[in-house]
Every structure is written in structure tokens, then in C-alpha cells.
Amino acid sequence: MNEEILRIEGLKVYFYTYAGVVKAIEGVNLSVRKGECFGLVGETGCGKSVTMRSVIKLVPPPGRIVSGKIYFEGLDVLSLPESEVRKLRGRKIGFIVQEPMSALDPLYKVGYQAGEPLLVHGLVKDVKEMWKRVVNLFKTVMIPEPKERSRNYPHELSGGMKQRVVIATAISCVPDLIIADEPTTNVDVTIQAQILDLLRDLRRKYGTTLILVTHNLGIVAEMCDRVAVMYAGQIVELANVYDLFKDPLHPYTKGLLEAVPIITKSREVRLKPIPGTIPNLIRPPPGCRFHPRCSLVAEICKRERPPMVEVKPEHYVACWLYAKR
Amino acid sequence: MAEYKYYLIRRLLTFIPTILGALFITFIVSHVVPMMPAKAGFARHLNLEALKRLEQLYHLDKPWWEQFAYYVRDLFTGHWGTSMMSGRPIFEDLRDYYPVTVQLAIAGEALILLIGVPLGIVAAMKQDKWIDYVIRVFSLVAYSMPYFLWAIGIQLLFYWKLGWFPGIGLGKPPAKIYTGMYLLDSLLCGDWSSFIDNLRHLFLPAFSLALPNAGVIARLMRGSLLDALSSEYIDYTRMKGLPERMVVLKHAMKNAIIPIITVGGLMFGGLLGGAFITETVFALAGAGRYTVMAVLRSMDIPVIMATTFLIVMTYLLVNLVVDLLYGAVDPRVRL
Question: Which residue from A85, B272, B292, B293 has the highest number of Cβ atoms inside 10 Å of its Cβ?
Fold first, then answer.
């Protein structure tokens, strides 16, 4: 269970825009264990997606991976040639994107698109076999009338169905790792629950490692084993889900949890938003990137970046409140 | 396929009001021009007595709606009347002139696509590299300059100065004439020397006709390919592990070509209406020149109305073909 499938070391991704260099990812370290469900949470724009896209070396331009190492099943991904990384994409690492509406090419049948990874990775001998496999895949992701639906075009399917097609695509080659980037953000709540159930079932069935990228803490609590909290391009806290929710350490994590509505609480209890806004990453705040919004800020926070320390077993936090000065 | 059949029937039915509307407008326009058609055509040669008789012969003494009914009936029964200019039946005139225009239009359209599409693709693939700038400047210049400048410039350079291509008229007539399009006919009867000669004659006019349009297509192609390439579904094909060649050719290109079908198709419709300027500069007896001459020289109303009818028909047909193509490529288009 403790075998590592993915390790990211000192990852830096910068976006070279006209306005300046956006330091989107500034030294991210994390490791994901085989078979677990790993959650990556943070506000929109904190670099969750970019970190995950770095894993398959597909950072959207003008972004560039500046430094760092990514090991997937022991392979040094970033130093692999493009043709070798391509063999990971879709084959070993399945991606579920957040926009099912626009992730499918409008001009091809959804079944064909879901089967494309099988074709390009040579897992089927011809298109006929691919179609057969696709119908089974559609059954797996619980698309009703899989045979008929596979022959539909994207515009003929609902958002939830399209998300299922995307999931079918991601699992088509039975990958070792599935990265689900906000899989439920753009579908309505009932579908959300169905999609999460589906992901859970798939994990049970194949034992696939799942990285769930989300800003929804409820989903994290429900699905994940361990979770990392990201803020402005850095990991600020990493723990197993139980510890993180019960005993959050980082002021940012605490803030996040206080900003979640709890139904049992009376209506008079107001949510506590985190003051301030996410920093401009062209000129990020020096020291701890959270310090301008932190209520417990100290002098050192403004000067030096806090190191990641293991406060309790398996519970890491990057904050000067817990680090030795 | 059944869908296609119903679609075709539906579309052909909509042709009827469109054609009648177009005919009505041309009819009214020609009718309100303050002149006596019979007088304009023949006054120099005839006395008043004879003019009266001519007016009766052409039903010009009848009220306008009756004239319109005669006109529509005759058009659809193949009686397109006689040209006042040439004295020949208009049908025969057009049989000579129209193939020249059709041949020029086909060659022009082929060059538009052969030049415009690849340039657009290269520009998009090398976005913001020097070659992209060169292509963008080229297309800007190409479509900013008017047809006559291109025609005269190209004729001056390649015909007068360099002498690489013949600069006026059609090539040697082929041994047998079937369609009146020399290039096609020479191919059909295997007359190779005529084929080559006609190809050479066709090149300069087709090229000068194509350049401005190719500029538009290149720009459109560049834009729509860049659009497609930056879309999320293209991103997702990469995440699936597709090689870049497949990403571009199979997914991006197919999406990018859709606007080209529309615009390229409409260009073809325009070209089929006759390219008066190009036909004039290169001394080609085509339908465009025939029509404009009918207007300028003699107010040859039967010819004007007949060619208008022809242009309306070709435009409708081209539009229909464009829509069918569009439906074949894009499943979102409901036929």
C-alpha cells in the first residue's frame, strides 16, 4: 500500500506572458501512493491543474516547466522524449477533464473518441474490435443503451453523459493512474453524486490510483485517503483526510474549512471568508505566499519561505507556526 | 440517405419563391428604366410603324404583369429570346460564352484553395514565426488590391515581360467540342496539344482571379486552424496520447475546414457569375463580359434578364452543394 506511483520534486512552472512571468507553480513536492485516492485542493487558479498537467508534460502555452523532477512508476517523465511521454498519456495515465461539454470533438462519434486511446496505443487490432471494446466501456461507466449512445455525436448527449464518455476514455486502456481534474464542477448535483459513485466503483474494480483535483472539500472528505492543500502554487499542508479535517494546522486550511457551510449549524452562524484575495503571481509576496492574508503573521513569514515539516506522523505543514526558526 | 432525399426536395421547393422573387426584381428594374426597349434596340434602323409592330411582337404594349407572366413562361420553356446585340438566340450565345466562364471559375476556385489553404495551414502551424508574418502580409496585400490591378500586373509581368504564359484569349480549340470548355473537351477527346495550350492560356487569368480570394482563404484558414488548435477537445486528444500529426490532421483540420467550405463555396458562386474585369483584361469571351456589354453597349434587356436568371440559378445550386457538404462534415448541422 505504501508503494509510490508518482513523485513530484521541486516542480516549478512559469507562464511567460506579455505582462510578465507568472510563477504559477513554485516548488511543489508531493508523492502519491499506489492504489490510494489522493486529493489536491485549493482555490481556482492556485495551480492544481497545472501541476497535474505537468505530470503528462502538457502544460498549456505560454507555460513552461522550469525545473523539478517528476517520477511516474520510477520513470523520470520530464527527461523522457515526447514519443515516450505519449505512451504514458491515455495508456498509463488517464485524464478526466473538467469540461465534458468541450472536451469532445464535435465532428466524431463519441464512441470513436472514447476508443481512440485503444487505437493509438495499439491495444486493439482494428477499428471493429475497438467499437466492441467501447460498447463494453460504456457499459462499465453505466451509459444506458451503450451501443446506440456510442454512435451518437457529442451534441446529442447531455452533460452528464458526456462526462461519462470522458471517464470511459480515461479508463479505456486500464491506466495505473487516473487524474480527475474537477470531474464534477460542471455537472449538476445529482449527476455529481453519480459520477463520484462511478469513480469509486471503478477504483474498487481496477484498484486504480486516483488523483482528485477539486476545490470542493465535501468531495475530498467523501472520496480521498490523503489530501494536499495548495495555495498560490505551493503545497501548504499534506495529511490523511481524517487528520486534515479534524485537526487542520495551516491557517489557510483552517480558513478553508471555516468557509464551508455546515447544514446542521443554525442559520445565524455566518460563514467566515478568508480575508484578502489570491496574490498576483507575477510579483508574489516574499516569504510565505499566504502571509498577507494570514491573521497569525509573524515577522519571519514576510521574509522566508517556511519549510515543510512533519508535525505529526504523516501530517506535513509549511508554516512558521510549526517550523523551527 | 432518406434524410438527404427529403432535405433535397425541401430545398428545391424553396428555390421556387427565390427564383420568382429574383426574376420579379430584375423584371421591375428593367421595366422602370425610362426607355422603350424596342426603340433602344432597333430605333436606328426602323421607322415608327415598324417599332409599333416590334412592340406588339414582344408584348411590350401589354401591362407589366402580363409581360411578367410571358417572361416567366418563356424562361421555363427554354425561350430565352433573341439578343438585340448579336441577333442570335440568347441560348446559343450563352452556349458559347458560359463554358468559358465556368472553366475560368473552376480553375480559379482550384487555385484559390490550392494557394489559400496550405498558406493558412503553414501560417497557423508556425504562428508568430517569420513565415507566418510573410504569409499574413501576403494575404493582406493579396486581398487589398483590386482584381484589375492583379490582372494587369500579372499580365504585364508573365506575358509581356517574361513571356512565360500566353496572355490573351483561349487556347487552341480541341479536335471535338462537347461542352465548350476547351480544357475538358481536349481531355475528353485526348487532344493533348490543345490541352496543354489551353492550360497555359487559362493559367494567368485564373491566377489573377484567385490571388485576392486566396488571400482571404489563407487568413480564414489560419484563424480557424488556430481556433481549433486552442480548443479543449484538441487538448484532450493530446491527453489521450494521440501523436501530434493525428491531432492536427484528424481533429484540428477537420474542424478548421468548415468555414472554408462556406466561404470558398460562396466565392465559387461569385466566380460562376462571371468575372467581368478578368475576362476583359485577358480578352476572354465569357458570360461576365457578355452581360456587362449587354448593359453598357445596347441596353440589351433580354440578355440582361437571361443572364441574371442564370446567375441566380448557379448561385442557388452552389449554395445547395455547400450546404450538403457542410452537412456531410459537421454532424451538428441538421439537414
Answer: B272
Determine the Cα–Cα distance for residues A297 and A276; give it in Å rounded to an integer: 14
Task: Kindly identify which residue of chain A lies nearest to residue B243, measuring between CA atoms.
Answer: A86
pLDDT for B46: 66
> pLDDT at position B184, please?
84
Rounded CA gap, A130 and A135, in Å?
Answer: 9
Question: What is the rounded average pLDDT of the residues B135-141?
Answer: 94
Q: How far off is chain B from A162, nearest CA to CA, in Å?
A: 12
Strands (E), chain A: 4-17, 20-33, 37-41, 63-72, 75-76, 93-96, 177-181, 209-214, 226-231, 234-240, 308-312, 315-318
Which member of B233, B239, B254 has the closest CB to residue A89? Answer: B239
Q: Which three cell numbers stand for residue B271?
A: 466566380
Which residue in A97, A116, A186 has the most chain B C-beta atoms within 10 A of its own C-beta, making it the best mutation to test that interface?
A: A116
Per-residue buried b or exposed e for A213-233, using 16+ beta carbons within 10 Å of the residue's own CB:
bbbbbebbeebbbbbbbbbbb
Picking from A56, A57, A107 by the largest number of B CB atoms within 10 A of its own CB, the best residue to mutate is: A107
Q: Are A249 and A311 in contact (CB under 8 A)?
A: yes
- What pLDDT is stored for residue B36 in this prediction? 60
Greater confidence, A34 or B85?
A: A34
Here the ipTM equals 0.89
pTM, two decimal places: 0.83
Report whether A47 contacts A21 (CB < 8 A): no
The pLDDT, as a whole number, for residue A98 is 83
Domains and CATH numbers, chain B: 21-77 (no CATH), 96-334 (1.10.3720.10)
pLDDT < 50: residue spans in chain A: none
**What pLDDT does A155 receive?**
92
B331–A107 C-beta distance less than 8 A: yes
Helix (H) or strand (E) holding B125: helix B90-125
Cβ contact, residue pair A102, B232, below 8 Å: yes
Nearest-Cα distance to chain A for B127, in Å, is 13
A37-41 vs A209-214, strand pairing mode: parallel
Give the pLDDT confidence score for residue B38 in this predicted structure: 59
Residue B29's H or E segment, with its range, is: helix B2-32
Q: Does A90 touch chain B (CB under 8 A)?
A: yes
Average pLDDT, whole number, for chain B? Answer: 86
Closest CA to B226 of B132, B299, B290: B132
Q: What is the mean pLDDT of residues B260-282?
A: 89
pLDDT at B8: 85
| DSSP 3-state percent helix, strand, coil across chain B (nearest 5) | 75, 0, 25
Query: Predicted confidence band at B165 (pLDDT cuts at 50, 70, 90)?
Result: confident
Q: Which residues of B touch A91 (CB under 8 A)?
A: 241
Interface membership of A89 toward B (CB under 8 Å): yes
Q: Which amino acid is at A36?
A: E
pLDDT confidence band for B43 (50 / 70 / 90): low
Q: CB distance from A271 to chain B under 8 Å?
A: no
pLDDT of B25 > 60? The answer is yes
CB-nearest partner of A89 from B241, B251, B329: B241
**Does an H or E element contain B88, and which?**
none
CB contact under 8 A, A104 and B233: yes
Residue from the list B234, B240, B330 with its beta carbon closest to the beta carbon of A90: B240
